[in-house]
């Protein structure tokens, strides 16, 4: 597995290079936006670790340019922990988002999950679309369809479905969903997440034989195509 690390802080870049190499990955480094974009477009990588604040062009611009031609999984790294920044990164096409400072063990777990997802899930990602089974999201037109039928989703439902689809195969807790979609700390006495999931499920799953949105009791929700 080859990983590209685009990080302008030399100490952080070397730390990531050392840790990932020790775990069996081949790692290339870039320390600015233009070099990172060039390597991402010209090389063959299984994953890109991309810092947001980069000299030359920032990480969001690198991500947009990469997504125009490549579906390489991208894990964004940033010192900015505002929910809007995280949501913006996911909407631009990032597959995951990690806020600095972070434990290497957490980064490694996220790297492994992203690489696993690429080989195990029946989902496809191109420049502007996310797919799972017969579900397709057009991120540019903000349109969702299933088996060719348009799903009439609200803005929040579309954002919720986008988040679930980007994390397909992963169980997302109510706390994580509430933070990412509603920018709120989850209150166990509030059922906003359950209500939203129930409404989304009524449009996404109820009219169709195959169910994609599943409840994992005591843990949260997961979007996946469970093959019988």
Feature tags:
2 domains; alpha/beta; Arc Repressor Mutant, subunit A; Rossmann fold; 5-stranded parallel beta sheet; 228 residues; single chain; globular; 5-stranded antiparallel beta sheet
CATH superfamily name of the largest domain? Answer: Response regulator
| Biggest sheet strand line-up | 2-1-3-4-5
Low-confidence stretches: 120-125
Shape: globular
Computed CA radius of gyration, to the nearest angstrom:
18 Å
Structural class of the secondary elements? alpha/beta
Tell me the number of strands. 12
Identify the CATH architecture of the largest domain.
3-Layer(aba) Sandwich
CATH topology of the largest domain: Rossmann fold
**Largest sheet entry:** 5 strands, parallel
Whole-number mean pLDDT: 86
What is the helix fraction of residues, given as a range? 40-55%
Count of individual domains: 2
Structure, explained:
With 228 residues, the protein is of the alpha/beta class. The chain folds into two domains: 2-120, Response regulator (Rossmann fold); 127-223, Orthogonal Bundle (Arc Repressor Mutant, subunit A), CATH 1.10.10.10. It has helices at 10-22, 33-42, 59-67, 83-92, 104-120, 155-166, 174-182, 192-204; strands at residues 2-6, 26-30, 47-51, 74-78, 96-99, 123-125, 129-132, 135-138, 143-146, 149-151, 213-216, 220-223. The strands form three sheets. A five-stranded parallel β-sheet has the order 2-1-3-4-5, sandwiched between helices. Strand 8 (135-138) and strand 9 form a beta hairpin. The protein is globular and about 50 Å long. The two termini are 30 Å apart.
């Amino acid at each position: 597995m080859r990983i590209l690390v685009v990080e302008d802080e030399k100490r952080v870049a070397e730390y990531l290079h050392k840790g990932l190499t020790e775990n069996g990955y081949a790692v290339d480094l870039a320390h600015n936006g233009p070099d990172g974009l060039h390597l991402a477009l010209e090389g063959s990588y299984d994953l890109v670790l991309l810092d947001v604040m980069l000299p030359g062009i920032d990480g969001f611009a690198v991500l947009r340019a990469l997504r125009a031609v490549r579906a390489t999984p991208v894990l964004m790294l940033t010192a900015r922990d505002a929910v809007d920044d995280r949501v913006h990164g996911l909407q631009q096409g990032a597959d995951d988002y990690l806020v600095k400072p972070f434990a290497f063990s957490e980064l490694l777990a996220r790297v492994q999950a992203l690489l696993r997802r690429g080989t195990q899930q029946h989902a496809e990602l191109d420049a502007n679309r996310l797919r799972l089974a017969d579900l397709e999201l057009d991120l540019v037109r903000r349109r969702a369809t299933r088996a060719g039928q348009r799903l009439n989703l609200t803005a929040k439902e579309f954002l919720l479905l986008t988040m679930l689809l980007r994390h397909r195969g992963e169980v997302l807790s109510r706390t994580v969903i509430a933070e990412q979609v509603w920018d709120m700390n989850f209150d166990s006495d509030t059922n906003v997440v359950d209500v939203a999931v129930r409404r989304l499920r009524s449009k996404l799953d109820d009219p169709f034989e195959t169910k994609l949105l599943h409840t994992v009791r005591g843990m949260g929700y997961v979007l996946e195509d469970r093959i019988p």
